[in-house]
Amino acid sequence: MNVGIIGLGVYLPDKRMTSEEIARLANIPVHIVQTKMGIEEKTIAGEDDHTVQMAICAAKEAIQNANINPKAIDVVIYFGEEHKEYPLWSAGIKIQEEIGATNAWAFDTQLRCGTAILAIKLAKSLMASDEDINTVLLAGGYRNHDLIDFNNPRTRFMFNLGAGGGALILQKGAMENIVYESDLITDGSFSEDVLIPVGGTKQPLTPLLLEQGLYRFDVTDPEGMKTRLEQRSLDNFIKVIRNSLMKSGFKEEDLSYLAMLHMKKSAHDYVLKVFDLKEENSIYLSKYGHIGQIDQLLSLKLALDEGKIKEGDIVTLVSAGIGYAWGATTIQWGKRKETEAWVN
Questions:
Q1: Separation between Cα atoms, residue 280 and residue 260, nearest integer Å
Q2: CATH H-level, domain 180-337: superfamily
């Protein structure tokens, strides 16, 4: 069973926050923002750039890119953030309505910044298990920069959070941009290290807690998390990429492009070095920041626009999400001859 990407869409707000602005808000030297955090500037949501609305904009672009009728879509999967227009709300169903996918059904899924990889795996599984599902739209939005307190040094590693939307259309039987296998790792020992401490059932939001600004991200044990996470995270990055390639039937030397999330430059470069890749085999998102689960789709689109990905190239999308979760999906870009189609 071939599943291929037939449509890709990305939405980015016009508004930007520069490294100088971040440095001033956080009271840290600008060279730290630029070199350690790897941020020249990042996208920031404008007045109308709501989370699901950005996903809808990206979805419409993906539909146009695929040149299909929205009525041909069988399932809509929302893979964006839970921080959206309303606290308790099914975003996928809203996207279904706004794009005119009247023959589809929809649902939401969540794995923080690893959700795009999860959604791709879910979409493939749905197609394999249900003969009536042939075309799936994945769409998500992200603007978690709203939840950052620049006066909180414990969350400094999240000062790169930005805003945007992304979408993919996958189709069963497609003979282009074939999606191969995914690999996912989750580690629950980090599940309560990064969270918003109030607003849930443990500590409902009150006017006092709101006034104190406790509705934003915090890190319960920053030093402990750093000690436990740093090397393990890099090891898991490497592991999911290797496993995705291996399960897909490719060797490491086949890899042509890595679509990675935005992280500190030293970690980005380390991953490239492990796979004997050069700077041109990826794009460091220093002009965009970290747009959560949208990063891989943004990197993919930028690489296609810049000609970094060519016909037949092996591309791996790799993610990491708070929780902690790591994931990778391997794609072969370009058209395939029917006789060469990979059979699952």
A1: 13
A2: Thiolase/Chalcone synthase (3.40.47.10)
